[in-house]
Amino acid sequence: MWDNFIRIKEVSKRVGQDVEIHGWVYRERKTKNFAFIVVRDSSSIVQCVLDKNSFPQEKWITIKKYADIEASVFVRGKVIKQEKAPTGYEIQVSDIEIIGKSPMFPITKDLSRDFIDDVRHLWIRSRKMTSVLKVRCTVFQAIREYFLSEGFYETQSPIIQSTQCEGGSTLFEVKYFDKKMYLAQTWQLHAEAVIFALEKAFCIAPSFRAEKSKTSRHLAEYWHAEMEAAWEDFEDLQNRAEALIKHIVKKVLEKNEEDLRILGRDISKLKPVLEKPFVRMTYDKALETLKKKFDMKVPWGKDLRTIEEEKLVSLFDVPIIVTHYPKEIKAFYMKEDPNNPKVVLGFDLLAPEGNGELIGASERETDLEKLKKRLIDQGEEPEQYGFYLDTRKYGSVPHSGFGLGIERVVKWLCNLEHIKDAIAFPRTMARYYP
Ligand code: 4AD
Ligand code: MG
Questions:
Q1: pLDDT tens, residue by residue, 382-394
Q2: The model's pTM
Q3: Rounded to the nearest whole angstrom, what is the distance from the C-alpha of residue 426 to the centroid of ligand 2?
């Protein structure tokens, strides 16, 4: 009878006792008289040693034949301390049962990145991906905690939408009966209507961008945490973005230290993010800094490129909030700065260590005529945005909001080379299976 399983993480607390675990064979090595199998479950791994003399002959043959990589197993045995074992403990096995065989598990060492992406459904069993998925879970939870504790309501908006919000070039078209519609780039336009009911709202939902660029920061489908708040201004918004990031980092350091260690993440680099205020600088100041420190000349009015953002963040060990971008390079809804109509009250929050923009944010333009003009300037028809423009007609209020790319945050926290490893089943231009 097998009825008393413990999680492998608990093994260290049971030295000298008999325990039962269930999991999958993570590594195996068999000699004539011994089998060494490392078993993993979602919590950890443990080395199990099987001595031929402890098993009837037939059972030993089964073990040798079927205890393959990724076979699922029940194991019973005594826990001992064993310095040489990967986690410092070992189970001396008295009984084992193979539950699901795994002949020739396709993932072995030194496989190409392409192949690993093809067998993503199997690769997520790796320690790396298991750790990333745990960090990701904490990030989602921390975002909810932050907003709920600040009095925000969680709300949802349609994924199938009739207009763009972040520029037409990254829209995915959907055939919607006999009409053309689009997958959501953001919840924002609907959120700006919702705050008239709830005042403070947030969501966590997928957003879609038909990004033709193959960078290590772009997904075609990503998870987007967004907030919108009535009565809050540009300054409030910067404080919120900083508080949210700090809360996420705090929770991940509390809950996932072991996972970050498995991922080889240098945790000391995350500590300043908790302890110090974030850097805040205007776009103008950013250009000046790039010129002075790196002799990089960015013409005023051009967006910062990856290389420029990377240089800028290399100067600090905390995120940078870059504010007051030129109007032309930002979305139509960003509020014009009353002190300088050439720039907007918008910001990008850039991660340290060259991980790019984590948050895009702005106070919203409330002037109906300015909004219409910005839409027209960007080649849009204001009539298409009727419901949105109504928010400026009936009891308009100052309000602000931002969007945070969850995979960007996970990539940064886990120090991943590519954003596709921040999600179990990534969607990029080149990758849509499995
Ligand atoms: O800067 P973006 O485009 O802003 C918006 O969508 C606003 N409507 C948000 C708002 O104010 N409610 O996107 C917000 C964030 C970016 O900072 C980035 O972290 C992430 O979404 N993001 C992507 N993440 C992965 N892949 C992509 N293709 C992304 N595009 C944006
Ligand atoms: Mg942006």
A1: 999 999 999 999 9
A2: 0.97
A3: 20
